[in-house]
Amino acid sequence: MSTADTAIKPPPAAERVYTHVKEAVLQRRYEGGTLLSEGGLAEAVGVSRTPVREALLRLEAEGLLKLYPKKGALVLPVSAQEIADVVETRLLVEQHAVAKVVPAGERLLRRLEELLEEQKGHAATGDLAAFAVADRCFHAEIVRAAGNTILAQLYDQLRDRQLRMGVATMHAEPDRIAKNITEHTEILDALRAGDAGSAAGFVQRHISWVNTLARGDVR
């Protein structure tokens, strides 16, 4: 078989558009309220308009965009209700999970330490999108370690909303970056000490502050 036959084919055009737009929305390169045109996206990705329409329909189904015929696609802002719903769901899942993983195994503790160091590195370089990803991974590791597959799958369904909200909140309150690192350290220390009650309390305080943003505008 020739090298050409075994070469990795590029993703389909619609998939490339989907990835381009979704990453830009989640990382706030396309802010809420931005109107995207099919022609502009086609030119940016280097495809025709047909795969652009296909990708935008998929993103509308995921709740990130609203399509307007002959006008384009509006990037939907993060709403106060969405924040409140995500926070409520996270509290239910994460407080249960963090208590269940005590006593925490060495593998989990090492992984959380690695993610905490990643967050510090991203904070130092000012990469908010990467910080938000590492932030989310820190919490997801604890949920997965609790061993409930259904809860872990439910938590993973919040992934896109959490990433987008994470970047939004870092922009709205830049000092949260340092506070997140401090609060993650408190959670990790409580797990290391085998203190389930303190760990659950730190998780509750850490997640609940986001509701303050639900009472105002998430810029």
Output the keywords.
12 helices; 3 strands; 71% helix
Brief synopsis:
With 219 residues, this protein is mainly α.
Plain-language structure description:
- By secondary structure, the protein is mostly helical.
- Helix content is 71%, strand content 5%.
- It has 12 helices and 3 strands, in the order ααβααββαααααααα.
- It has helices at 3-6, 13-26, 38-45, 49-61, 80-100, 106-125, 128-145, 149-156, 159-172, 176-193, 196-208, 211-214, and strands spanning 35-36, 65-68, 72-75.
- A hairpin with a 3-residue loop joins strand 2 (65-68) and strand 3.
- The model has no long low-confidence stretch (mean pLDDT 88).
- Unreliable runs: none
- Tally of helical segments: 12
Binned strand content: under 5%
| Largest sheet strand order | 1-3-2
Q: Compute the average pLDDT.
A: 88
Summing up helix and strand content along with how strands pair, one would put the structural category as mainly alpha
What order do the helices and strands follow? Answer: HHEHHEEHHHHHHHH
- First-residue to last-residue Cα separation: 53 Å
- Name the helicity range: over 70%
Describe the global form: elongated
Report the C-alpha radius of gyration, rounded. 20 Å
Q: How many strands appear in the DSSP assignment?
A: 3
Largest sheet: 3 strands, antiparallel
